[in-house]
Write a structure and sequence with these properties.
9 helices, binds NADP nicotinamide-adenine-dinucleotide phosphate, alpha/beta, seven-stranded parallel sheet, 304 residues
């Protein structure tokens, strides 16, 4: 395949979304993959990897100056929702200051910055949400992600923001996510407890990566809700996972969020309307079952 001229940066390249972005972009662009630590064993062929911390103003300015990326996809983030309640400074540094550094470098050297945010900026009282709904984060992670959005919007950079939720998928070396955790536990015949009062759109990471690439090549300077096309509660989603992976759904116990005693409050009645992205970007993402089926195929192909 002939490559499009120009470099593309992916930050957080060893994370779940970052890996899927690099995988989809690498045949079409010259991809430069950045992360705080680089791990040789999970690097993809034909991609240049650099160790780079997005919170370092000088590192980001130098990299953007030297490589002139046409697009910068920011998949780097502090993503530990409960940890953020105690590691506030670190969370803010990455999710707010890091975005500001990237936005600054993008503005100075004319790159287009595609940033990723979350439904945790909403309180979950009145979902599903539209892009224009008023945010009110419940926890520190959500507060930092909202502040990161605002840094970018006010920066003067060419940008777009894709908000997503309940991200799951496959990538080597990443932490387990909702779906891969369920599969691992059920394969080991372990009982698991899943809440039935958290509602949202489960989103396959490779599907989100493809949507973000569409968003990048559009000239839209706006916020889009990029999430799976179906709203479902976690318990019923877990039953679908068991069904598609042919595992024992009898091991899944139905509980409430209050039973978990988590450090951060969750937006319960969340979910996104996705029609704006469908209309303006021409991209419809997978249903709950469709996404799990695609993940199963991805895992079989990649053998992880
Ligand atoms: N996961 C979800 O359910 C979900 C839902 C809604 C929105 N999102 C958003 O989606 C995006 C991607 O999430 P994800 O689940 O793919 O995250 P992830 O797997 O945790 O990946 C984030 C990556 O960023 C790296 N990183 C952390 N600090 C960095 C820094 N200062 N400079 C450079 N890289 C840094 C991490 O390295 P370490 O692992 O070494 O820290 C990790 O490789 C994030 O913006 C997140 O807020 C996620």
């Amino acid at each position: 395949m002939q490559k499009v001229k120009g470099n593309v940066f992916v930050t957080g390249a060893h994370g779940l979304l970052g890996y899927n972005l690099v995988r989809l972009l690498k045949d079409k662009f010259d991809v430069i993959a950045l992360d705080v630590t680089t791990q040789k064993e999970i690097c993809l062929d034909g991609v240049q990897y650099f160790q780079a911390d997005i919170t370092s103003r000088k590192t980001m300015l130098d990299l953007v100056k030297n490589h002139h990326p046409r697009y910068i996809f920011n998949a780097a983030a502090y993503t530990n929702v409960d940890g953020a309640e105690t590691e506030r400074e670190l969370c803010w540094k990455i999710n707010v200051d890091g975005v500001a550094r990237l936005a600054h470098a993008s503005r100075v050297y004319g790159s287009r910055l595609i940033h990723v945010s979350t439904d945790y900026i909403f309180n979950g009282n009145t979902g599903p949400y539209r892009e224009s709904d008023r945010p009110e984060p419940l926890g520190y992670y959500g507060k930092s992600k909202l502040a990161g959005e605002n840094e970018l919007i006010c920066s003067g950079a060419n940008y777009a923001i894709g908000r997503t939720m309940v991200l799951y998928g496959a990538a080597p070396g990443v932490r387990l996510n909702f779906v891969t955790w369920i599969v691992t536990q059920l394969r080991a015949n372990k009982n698991i407890r899943i809440v039935d009062d958290q509602i949202g759109n489960p989103t396959l990471a490779s599907d989100l990566a493809a949507a973000l690439i569409k968003l990048a090549v559009s000239s839209k300077q706006d916020i889009y809700h990029l999430a799976g096309s179906e709203i479902i509660d976690r318990y019923h989603f877990a039953l679908l996972v068991a069904d598609v992976f042919e595992l024992d759904a009898g091991l899944i116990e139905r509980i409430k969020t209050a039973d978990l005693d988590q450090a951060a409050n969750r937006p319960l009645n969340s979910g996104f309307f996705t029609d704006k992205a469908e209309k303006e970007l021409g991209f419809k993402m997978a249903t709950a079952r469709g996404g799990i089926e695609r993940l199963k195929a991805e895992m079989a192909n990649a053998q992880y």
